[in-house]
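F.,

This is the one I mentioned.
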């Protein structure tokens, strides 16, 4: 009979367990958004405390998105400037991930992967709205300022906006699954105190 050390199990997996309902609600939101109505991307009713996390993550990613336009505008290319908002939603948490991996911070690494997944979901909803342009834009900008409409129209792929949404959500789910599985591939290290009397 296999003996399970529940204290050790919970110490290792508690954050993965906490992430599961958040991920579940986000996937349900994506299902409704991409299959029924794009407005579920902004009006989905999350329960507490998922709603608090969603509010904070959505606003953080919005700030990061807008900063991306400014940052990528230094390249002087309109398409790169437009794409820069969405790119920044992925690059910002990737930099955090690099720091957490380098410093072997398990829970922070899980959160960084989770944040990358959230970034992909955010981009997915924006891309899926490209042809209809129904979602409100920041600063009451008109539909002509819709990033993904302009990008997909430039690439002659506007009719594929739904496919882009599905692909981006799938990538987001992959990062969510990686976030949950992080404890599997972090080796346990033990601190040893050596008292050397020389």
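My design for it:
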């Amino acid at each position: 009979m296999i003996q399970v050390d529940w204290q050790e199990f919970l110490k290792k997996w508690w954050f993965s367990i906490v992430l599961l309902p958040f991920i579940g609600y986000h996937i349900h939101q994506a299902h409704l958004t991409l299959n029924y109505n794009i407005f579920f991307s902004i009006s989905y009713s999350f329960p507490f405390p998922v709603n608090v996390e969603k509010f904070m993550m959505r606003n953080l990613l919005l700030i990061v998105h807008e900063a991306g336009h400014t940052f990528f505008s230094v390249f002087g290319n309109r398409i790169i400037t437009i794409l820069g908002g969405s790119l920044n939603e992925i690059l910002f948490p990737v930099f955090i991930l690099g720091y957490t991996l380098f410093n072997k911070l398990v829970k922070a690494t899980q959160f960084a992967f989770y944040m990358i997944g959230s970034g992909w979901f955010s981009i997915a909803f924006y891309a899926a709205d490209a042809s209809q342009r129904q979602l409100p834009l920041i600063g009451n900008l008109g539909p002509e300022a819709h990033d993904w409409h302009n990008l997909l129209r430039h690439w002659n792929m506007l009719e594929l906006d739904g496919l882009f949404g599905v692909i981006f959500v799938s990538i987001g789910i992959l990062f969510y699954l990686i976030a949950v599985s992080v404890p599997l591939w972090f080796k346990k290290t033990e601190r040893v105190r050596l008292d050397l009397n020389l």
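The CA atoms of residues 14 and 107 lie 9 Å apart.

Talk soon.
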